Amino acid sequence: AARGAAMYAGLQELGVANGEDLKETLTNCTEPLKAIEQFQTENGVLLPSLQSALPFLDLHGTPRLEFHQSVFDELREKLLERVSAIALEGKVEERYKKLEDLLEKSFSLVKMPSIQPVVMCVMKHLPKVPEKKLKLVMADKDLYKACAVEVKRQIWQDNQALFGDEVSPLLKQYILEKENILFSNDISVLHNFFTPSPKTRRQGEVVQKLTQMIGKNVKLYDMVLQFLRTLFLRTRNVHYCTLRAELLMSLHDLDISEICTVDPCHKFTWCLDACIREKFVDNKRARELQGFLDGVKKGQEQVLGDLSMILCDPFAINTLALSTIRHLQDLVGQDTLPRESPDLLLLLRMLSLGQGAWDMIDSQVFKEPKMEAELITKFLPMLMSFVVDDHMFTVDQKLPSEEKGPIPYPSAIPEAFTKFLQENRIACEIGLYYFLHITKLRNKNAFLRLLPALVETFSDLAFSDIFLHLLTGNLTLLGDEFALEEFCTSLFDGFFLTVCSRKENVHRHVLRLLLHLHHKVAPTKLESLQKALEPTKQSGEAVKELYNQLTEKLELRKPSPAEVTETPSMELPLPTVPTPASR
Q1: Angle CA(295)–CA(301)–CA(302) in degrees, nearest 5?
Q2: pLDDT for the residue 324
Q3: How many of the other CB atoms lie within 10 Å of CB of 65?
Q4: CA angle 440-445-446, nearest 5°?
Q5: What is the structure's pLDDT at 232?
Q6: End-to-end CA distance of the chain, in Å?
Q7: Predicted pLDDT of residue 21
Q8: Lowest mean per-residue pLDDT among 74-88, 177-191, 318-332, 512-526
Q9: 399 vs 83, which has greater pLDDT?
Q10: CA 435 to chain centre
Q11: Could you tell me what percent of the chain has a pLDDT over 90?
Q12: In 183-217, where does DSSP find H-type helix?
């Protein structure tokens, strides 16, 4: 009955007879057949030529319902086409006046499933649906669900809480997707978190959905940015900064000038986006970026909060840090000090702004963080001296050895280096990227020399997911070293295991690494690692799952009891063939 009522919802208001009227007529009449005929005549398609044609359909056994349904469907299609055409023709005021009149006439039928698409189509083409109608749509769950995104935008822009409910699951999904990539079981130096280009990332489901929800609506765009700022402040999760930049660039791709021209970060983000694509800040773009930073006028300092969030995006930090390491190597070759390189100083300025994003947005004090002179005069020259140590060691190895024997690789690290990594955020970030750089070069000596400095770093950055994701990828290049006790002790006992019990994410990354490289690790070491990494009651599901996977792989590697039994002394022992290492 309820479904029947919905089918005819609103017809009575328009003076059109419905099923209820027919029921009433039949209940109160003496001749039902005559009453039905009269009802059909009054409410059928009023075309004189049709009256004589209908009996033909009866002869072919076509029910009247089927005929009326097909006429109805045809008319509805024509009406939908006409509505879309009206929305594009004539003067703006006139066309919208026509649509408003049509909406006024048809809105009472909005709950009637067969007519609903027409009403929704009319609303979709109206840039401003009357407030009263929007409220009725919003109050009815089914109507709200059925209406086009163009209508929903009009509802959302005055209902931040409702819009928040729509956006929130998307933001959760986005963060989850990022974390899944960082903890992925595929460990590779060639394909990591930073491999996809900005353009590819913007094609992701969440960015595309948000872009569509916003359309050209500046108010909704501002709301999303406000959500992202709030969540970034609440969680310190830097992936919200990535989404901030991706969303702006997604609107840029679609040429939505209504939004891009009012976002003061647009040109800066566009230029930085090109650098991220190349994974390097070249001199021309560096000057352009500097121009934007220097161009922040008095009274407009608030834009620094937005710029800092754009620069706090891990993809931006990654690009700036990689460029910094490249500059430092170039400076070694040019015999130039860091303080004499304007390009390097600009990279540090942007790193500093990005790393200070949370503090700036939290304190609402919009000024660039002050750069510590010692970072430039002491820390960076120290990193350059490490590069020089490597060059000297390499050259020394090639020289004919004299009586005194080869010079050993320097093993000590300056105390100041460790102190910088603990106390200065920018120094720590650059130091960690230098460490990734030497790992990628398979420079085992430098790796073992600097590793102890990573146990205590600023805000535990060396145990952050992004760094560990990159480190585990680069460590695959040093795979053969895992057979050596000294190397494993330094890496596992000296670094990873120092925090495994209190940092679940580190526990996960170590297990990921071992799942990938277990066949390279010396058996005795592997056994002790298996014991040390056993999950506790407090461990999360992810750790338990990884540990079980590792255990299974190690079980497969063990020789079966049949292979181990002693061979009779008369026969020659067959050499046991090790099973191929299962990755």
Answers
A1: 130
A2: 97
A3: 8
A4: 60
A5: 97
A6: 62
A7: 67
A8: 74-88
A9: 399
A10: 26
A11: 63
A12: 198-202, 205-214
Alpha helices per DSSP H over 147-265: 149-156, 160-182, 198-202, 205-214, 218-235, 239-253, 257-260
356-367 per-position pLDDT tens digit = 999 999 999 999
- Residue 123: half-sphere exposure toward Cβ, Cα within 13 Å: 29
Backbone phi and psi for residue 319, each to the nearest 5 degrees, phi listed first: -65, -45
Contact 581/557 with Cβ under 8 angstroms? yes
Cα separation, 286 vs 268, in Å, equals 11
User: Could you give the 3-state DSSP secondary structure of residue 497?
Assistant: helix
Token couple for 132: 């009263």
Count other Cβ atoms within 10 Å, centred on residue 427. Answer: 25
Q: Which two tokens stand for residue 26?
A: 């039949």
How would residue 557 be classed by pLDDT, with cut points 50, 70 and 90?
Answer: confident
- From CA 413, how far away is CA 452, in angstroms rounded? 9
What is d(CA 36, CA 272) in angstroms, rounded to the nearest whole number? 74
In whole angstroms, how far apart are CA 145 and each of 72, 142, 165, 263? 24, 5, 13, 31
| Contact assessment for residue 258 and residue 218, using Cβ atoms and an 8 Å cutoff | yes
Under 8 Å between Cβ of 554 and 530: yes
Range 302-311 average pLDDT = 95
Question: ∠407-410-414 over CA atoms, to 5°?
Answer: 150
By CB atoms closer than 10 A (0-12, 13-18, 19+), residue 557 is: middle
Q: How far apart are CA 524 and CA 530, in angstroms?
A: 10
Give, in order, the Cα–Cα distances in Å from 184 to each of 167, 188, 458, 511, 535.
26, 10, 26, 11, 19
CA distance 140 to 134: 10
Q: Where are the domains of the chain?
A: 45-126, 157-366, 375-397+411-551
Q: Across the chain, what does the average pLDDT equal?
A: 87
- Tell me the per-residue pLDDT of 104-113, one tens digit each, with 9 for 90 and over: 777 777 777 7
Identify the three-state secondary structure at position 44: coil
**Distances in whole angstroms, Cα of residue 330 to Cα of each of 290, 337, 388, 446:** 21, 10, 12, 19
Nearest Cα to Cα of residue 390 among 329, 336, 480: 329
Residues composing the chain: 583
Distances (CA, A) of 292 to 262, 284, 295, 503, 539: 15, 13, 5, 40, 47
pLDDT, residue 66, reads 73
Continuous H helices in 356-502: 357-363, 373-374, 380-398, 415-423, 425-440, 444-450, 465-475, 485-488
- Residues with Cβ within 8 Å of 123's Cβ and at least 6 positions away in sequence, in order, are 103, 129, 133, 137, 147, 148, 150, 151
Q: CA triplet 440, 441, 445: central angle to 5 degrees?
A: 110
- DSSP letter string over 54-106? HHHHHHTT--HHHHHHHHHHHHHHHHHHHHHHHTTSS-HHHHHHHHHHHHHHH
**Is a pLDDT exceeding 80 seen at residue 128?**
yes
Query: Taken in order 137, 143, 145, 147, is the CA torsion positive or negative?
Result: negative
- Determine the angle formed by the axes of helices 425-440 and 380-398, rounding to 10 degrees: 20
314-334 vs 239-253: helix axis angle to the nearest 10?
100
Question: pLDDT, tens digit, for every residue of 235-270?
Answer: 999 999 999 999 999 999 999 999 999 999 999 999
Contact at 8 Å (CB) between 355 and 433?
Answer: no
